UniProtKB/TrEMBL annotation:
InterPro entries: Thioredoxin-like_sf, Thioredoxin_domain. The keyword Protein biosynthesis does not apply. This is Thioredoxin domain-containing protein. It comes from the Bacteria. CDD domains: TRX_family. Belongs to the thioredoxin family.
Amino acid sequence: MVLSVSERTFTQEVLESPIPVLVNFEAPWCGLCRIIHPLLLQFKAQCGDQIKLVGINADDNFKLSTTYRLKSLPTLLLIENGIVRQRLEGFRGREDLLQALEEIKLSYGKHHKVHTNTKTAELGYRLA
């Protein structure tokens, strides 16, 4: 499940989060946003409680969209301790996103010991 965050709850849920947060800026009219949603849920399932996944409606939260200088949707930000660690935008499809999420998992895993079991890893490769 993706937690829906707004400008009102952003500081508490994202900037003050004790764990890294993958922020998905999306909009109801965005077709690619709907396509990547299941992949983000799978990523969250693989990472467990090591990463929080939140969604922000870019149209309804214009101040956040401006603050983070969104150029396209979807835009994903990995925010840790209030700092943007990675920015993912301009996807060309599922494969682009899967590769980017795998890189996050690998780089994050090196520093924070995120472990996935074999069954979870196999699931990720089957979707690609």
